[in-house]
Amino acid sequence: MKAEEIVKYIKETLIASLDTNKFLDQQTRDKAKAKLAASTDKMGYPDIYMNDAELDSIYQDIAINRSDYFQNLLNLNVFEKEDWTRRLTSGEDRSRWIYNSYDTWMTFYNYWNQLLVPAGMLQFPIYEWNLPHYFNFGSMGGLVGHYMIHAIDNWGRYYDENGRVDGGWYTNASLEGYKSTQKCFAAAYHNKTMGPFRIVGQASPQTLLVNGARFAWEGLAETSGLKIAYKAYRKWVADKGEERPTPTPHYTNDQSFFLSFAQTFCYTRTDALGYYYASAQRIPENIRVNTALSLSEEFTAAFRCPATSNMNAANKCDTF
Fold first, then answer.
1. Which residues are in coiled coils (predicted)?
2. Left (φ > 0), alpha (ψ -120 to 50) or beta: where does 44 sit?
3. Contacts (Cβ under 8 Å, ≥6 apart) of 300
4. Which segments of the chain have a pLDDT < 50?
5. Is 116 helix (H, G, I), strand (E, B) or coil?
């Protein structure tokens, strides 16, 4: 499966990239490598979904009567209670899925050291089996890279390779190095303008400024994930060979990779909702994409962005 191959390449590339990381010391790198190497992934949906007999066995004890709605609710409550009792008394079952197959988000679940990618994410424009790898590495791969970074960043450092909370495995030197890198990303996003938003009752369009310090850890994961996905794609090309370029317009495969990354963030929403999100410091997608790309040397090289252009940040930050 192409999706599993992409995850494999990104995971291997991230582990290898830690050897040249500039803000983690060797002890912390070794811990990060061990955690990533031990991590697992769940892609699409559980295997049991394809086995009717096993699915039937799960629900065979529920009594359903089409003419007694209230009793059906009581029976379902009993079923749920028994299921939770089994979980509490028998211990956690890491083969279970905490997401529905139709969910349209992914995450790195540090408690189980697992990457979770439901089937709802494995569709266009995030993933399309028939499209070239430069498309899928740019779109799905960029997101996978982002969430794998959360396994070893300032959040993931509190969980070991078994998902246990151990107080944090960064050394003091690595923690200071991470904080210094985070400051670079805080500066890259700080005071960028969100909006303008046209709000009912307001005479003029409203704008808000980004609090760079609040978004810095996500910005670090975003740019790091993008760069890891690109390196993984180039490693795949080295192993498998260059793919045929897009027919028209005549973008190079590398350029198409970055365009695919950007396309995954396309959105439409009302100004009222956009203003509500911005008020809560949920950074608009155009700022997230343009800043992440402008901090990537690989992007600026692919599109030959002039040194003075907005899409070529003068101060590039260190990444994972």
1. none
2. left
3. 294, 311, 312
4. none
5. strand
Residue labelled with tokens 């993931």: 156
What is the DSSP code (8-state) at residue 153? S
Contact 43, 4 (CB under 8 A): yes
Are 254 and 246 in contact, with CB atoms under 8 Å apart?
Answer: no
With CA atoms as reference, report the closest residue to 94 among 37, 157, 162, 152: 162
Can you list the alpha helix ranges (DSSP code H) found in the chain? 2-17, 26-38, 52-59, 69-90, 133-149, 172-189, 212-240, 253-263, 271-279, 285-294, 297-302
Q: What is the pLDDT of residue 286?
A: 96
Residues 6+ apart with CB under 8 A from 299: 226, 258, 293, 305, 311
Of 8, 9, 15, the residue nearest 40 (C-alpha)? 8
Q: What is the pLDDT of residue 248?
A: 67
Amino acid at 215: F
Alpha-carbon gap, residue 263 to 308, rounded angstroms: 25
What gap in Å lies between CA 207 and CA 286, rounded to an integer? 15
The end-to-end CA distance of the chain, in Å, is 27
- Name the β-bridge partners of 40: 114
The answer to whether 265 and 258 are in contact (CB under 8 A) is: no
Interaxial angle between packed helices 285-294 and 172-189, expressed in degrees from 0 to 180 and rounded to the nearest 10: 120
Parallel, antiparallel, or unpaired for β 114-118 and 107-109?
antiparallel
Check residue 117 and give its pLDDT: 97
pLDDT above 90 coverage of the chain, percent = 86
Distance CA 87, CA 99 (A): 16
Peptide bond into 245 cis (omega under 30): no
Q: Which residue type sits at 78?
A: V
Q: CA quadruple 126, 130, 132, 137: dihedral positive or negative?
A: positive
Q: Which residue has the tokens 């190497």?
A: 37
Q: What are phi and psi of 58, to 5 degrees?
A: -70, -40
Contact status, residue 146 vs residue 106, Cβ threshold 8 Å: no
Q: How many other CB atoms sit within 10 Å of the CB of residue 116? A: 20
